Amino acid sequence: MAQINGAFIESVSLQSFILFIFVVIFTFVLGSILNLLIIKFLKERVRPVIYKTLSKMIMYGVYALGLYFAFQKIINFNITASLAAIGILGIGLLLPMVPILQNIAAGFVIALERPFKEEDVVEIDGILCRVKDIMLRKTKLRSLDGKIVIVPNISFVTGNPIINYSKGEFIRVVLNIDITPDSDKDKTIEIIKKICTDSQNILPHVPEKKLGRITKIFEIPKNFFMIPRNIKALSPQVMIKSASKDKIGLEVWFWIWNILMKENIISSFYEELIKEFNKEGIKFG
User: Fold this and answer.
1) Segments making up each domain of the chain, as ranges
2) Do residues 62 and 31 lie in contact, with contact meaning Cβ atoms separated by under 8 Å?
3) What is the CATH number of domain 121-164?
4) Which residues are CB-contacts of 69 (< 8 A; sequence separation ≥ 6)?
5) 171-280 has which CATH code?
6) Per-residue model confidence as pLDDT tens digits over 139-188
7) Beta bridge partners of residue 268, listed in sequence order
8) CA contacts within 13 A on the Cβ side of 61
9) At CA 240, angle to CA 238 and CA 245, rounded to 5?
């Protein structure tokens, strides 16, 4: 036993130190191998959220058990006595660990609250991404242009709000369309509404997998397959926002359920709009 500043730190033999290093290395190798094996075995059998969560729980469990055994059973490490012994130096050594510990704590908060999961489509700082991997200290996302975005977990707890499009059931799209004053306004509105209602990607058209969720929100019977009157607010809408001698400004609202298709849906909408305007002699303002 050696005494430093009144705190006792048990001496460690060379044999114990070598065993300690071996156990630490073996722990991380074993945890990583188990993580990969579980993913490989379950990837084609269950959903990503299940096999990824299970693999991480086992991996981090192995890490925790291995490190506990290495520190407590092999070298008998006493963190309280050690910090008291090295005093201010110990505090200085721990300070750089504070951000890491904060991110780890935030990782546990994310695991418990589940604001998002793997494969969810989220928006963070204006960037639309798909969640690829939620780790203990950080989260890996892939933006729509293919970039890999690594975000510290603490950012999701203390930073700007994150928008989860996968948890929502529909997203409103707002478009501004100007026409010349001599164009037929009523015909224009009719054309816009027809284009929206004919599109299979715009509400009230709802895919079967989404119908259950939307009907549950509005408390509609599950065997009711037509869009009922109490969600008419989700039907396409066209409003006059401005009028002058130069143009009439219209604002179009419609709702979609897949944010990843937003640009394609808007593009298809404008293609049909241009075609119908040319056919009816309506001019853009």
Assistant:
1) 2-86, 121-164, 171-280
2) yes
3) 2.30.30.60
4) 23
5) 3.30.70.100
6) 999 988 888 999 998 888 777 788 888 776 678 899 999 999 999 999 99
7) none
8) 8
9) 140
